[in-house]
Amino acid sequence: MEAYQKGLETGWAQERDWSQRAATAQIERLERQIRTLRDELDAKSRRFQIDGDQVVTVDGYGYRWKGPGTLEVGDRVLLPENYVSALRHGPGPFPGTVTELGTTYTGPLSTIVSRAPAAPRQSS
To answer: Which of 17, 73, 95, 110 is 20 to 30 A off residue 84, Cα-Cα?
Structure first.
């Protein structure tokens, strides 16, 4: 009887492990499928230029760049004041970082004020 009970418990434990591995594999497959579909949709709807202006994403929001040269990911820029920035940073332009080239946002875009000035070097 003990052997039967032990075998039954082992069988249930193996079934639980198998079910958990199968569920984990299914979740991973669905997550990969979502990423692929999101990337395909992004590629179809991402805009890189509007009326000759470069379009970039700065800290998650789309902006236009009319200045000289092109911006690259990692460039620091000054963004126009808005209601939220005035509360957070005070009046005037505020700094941001280009995080992506292009944007999928389809509404109107504000224009970047300028490249941010280089931070002064500290002497030791």
So the answer is: 73
| CA 76 to the chain's CA centroid | 17
Does the global pTM surpass 0.70? no
Query: Which tokens sit at 47?
Result: 């805009």
Question: Residue 90 and residue 36: Cα distance in Å, rounded?
Answer: 40
Sequence-distant contacts of 77-81: CB under 8 A, at least 24 apart: 77/112, 77/113, 77/114, 77/115, 77/116, 78/112, 78/113, 78/114, 78/115, 78/116, 79/110, 79/112, 79/113, 80/110, 80/111, 80/112, 80/113
Q: Which helix (H) or strand (E) holds 99?
A: strand 94-101
Quick: pLDDT tens for 29-53.
999 999 999 889 888 889 999 999 9
